[in-house]
Amino acid sequence: MLTGWRLSVSKWFLIPHRYVLGIMGFFAVVNAYTMRVSLNLAITEMVPPVSVSEYYDPNGCNPEDSLLYTYKASDSEYVYDWDSTTQVIYATDGNWKALVAIRMLEGLGEGTTYPALNALLAQWVPLQERAKIGSLVYAGSQIG
């Protein structure tokens, strides 16, 4: 039974807190999966594709004259399509260590998502509704 300030607060909020927790947990899981996918797409789309206009036939020429020995990539082929103020400064310049560090940081953030949601659902959601709200929360992994 609610008494005092809890009764007055419950009159103002039409949606029970456990449903708000379920909706926020759903968006947390969607966000975690979206971040995981977005980094892979962003890294591959940052650099424009390099296409070689010459055709290389390994049986048609000497190795000294082949495209592999004579082709030298210039700096202009790896220029980004946007200005330097909108780039992620350390991760986009080809530094693989920065990419690994970002992935590790992302993993630390995402690794706590499921245990935290399990603990929150166990504390806030009654046993009769736990399966319904839990399935709502974890459906975010399929959508994200």
UniProtKB/TrEMBL annotation:
GO molecular function terms noted in the UniProt entry: transmembrane transporter activity
Main localization, broad class: membrane
Membrane topology: Multi-pass membrane protein
Keyword Membrane attributed: yes
Compartments in which it is found: Membrane
GO cellular component, one term: membrane
Residues that span the membrane, as ranges: 12-33
Keyword Transmembrane helix included in the entry's annotation: yes
Keyword terms: Membrane, Transmembrane, Transmembrane helix
GO BP, sorted A to Z: monoatomic anion transport
Signal sequence coordinates: none
UniProt name for this protein: Uncharacterized protein
